[in-house]
Amino acid sequence: MNTIAVPIFIMNLDQFIFDQIQCICMSSNKIDKRQKRALYVADSAMKSMHTIPDGVLTLLNDVIAIRQQSINVFPLLTISQQEIQNYLEMNGHLPVLGNVTRIQLGPTLNVIDNIDIPRFNWKQVCSVMSMIAPVPQQDAVKKAAEALVTALLCNMDGLYDLSCDIFKKIIARLFVVDEVVLLDVIRAKRIIFLIKNADIIFELKGGMAWKRFMEFFSDAKEVNKVFSNGDNDTSILVNPDLRDYDIVHDFLCAKIRRIMIELIPGVMPGLRQFISYAEENGIEVNGYQFPLLHTPVCGFSGQIVGNDSVITFDQERVLKVQLNELKFVLFDNYQSHFALLRYKLPFKCLDRILCAEILDISVPYKTDCFIRSSFADKGSMTVVDMVIV
């Protein structure tokens, strides 16, 4: 039987900077860190590896300038240790299998409407409008608490490598046609054909991937000042010119979710040491130690229906698998629109559930304004790993 080497790429330099620009525009946290990352990568690239289009660098500097001024209009959301402590000490409510929750989606605030800087032609930088998505305070506090758990695990050596191995196993399982319905068999074989034909490509795109990559070209101590350890952000890009793009996208996401669930028994032994470490140490908030206990929780699937995000909970598992549909309207008809599949490791902290992020897989929809430029760059992407199937 012939073997196939499926490449895993790292996001291009200019795309990484562009991605950080998007995060700077839309996020209400880690702005200083993201700016340092983008500027450091740009500076290193100009010195040693590649050139970056002047437009990207100009855009980066412009967006940073705009973003810093926008803080005066919409102050950054800061979460105090006391707020996290108060959140953890409140009684929590756990989801139940089969529960369906509808969350109304509100409009995204557009900072540019409140800042008068006439020298910028925002039509030309349509996909990176400086915006802040309004986040409910309690949800922001929950994310801050979960960030502490994620940081606790990511500070241990080996979690990122483990998550990369999991990503490679998911890719390999896409070549297994185990569907029983004829139409699903045809679609599964279509996925395999598209991967072989480089119409579906896999990439590492997060800060951890770039931290590892930059260590080949820069001093590790300098890199560590800019890049901290974190979870594994990856992406799967589908050729936007495919006539059956939507069918391929939806089937691919559904199959990956099923694979992630099926892989849990094989993944858990590798996570045991990280679970033990978290349970032994807990998290420190406001000078107090809060215990963590690994516990099974419900995963969920979410999709956008009209003006609502509809979330359906499934059964409890020791590793949470969730599938979200996320959409951010950036400007006019430009939007960031993608499915996000996640592995999260759940812990009980008092009466609350906190989940550490292990692996993120984003799969852009055809309506995503970045998919075409991202996929067009595949010929110049750097291969950093291979999956042999």
Short description:
The protein is α+β, with helices and mostly antiparallel strands. Helix content is 42%, strand content 26%.
Structure description:
The protein is of the alpha+beta class and 389 residues long. The chain has one domain. It has helices at 13-26, 31-49, 54-70, 81-88, 137-154, 159-173, 182-196, 207-214, 220-226, 245-281, 371-376, and strands at residues 5-10, 100-104, 109-110, 131-132, 200-204, 232-238, 283-285, 288-290, 293-294, 297-305, 308-317, 320-331, 334-349, 352-364, 382-388. The strands form three sheets. Strands 1, 2, 5, 6, 9, 10, 11, 12, 13, 14 and 15 form an eleven-stranded mixed β-sheet that branches. A two-stranded antiparallel sheet has the order 3-4. Strands 7-8 form a two-stranded antiparallel sheet. The N and C termini lie close together (10 Å).
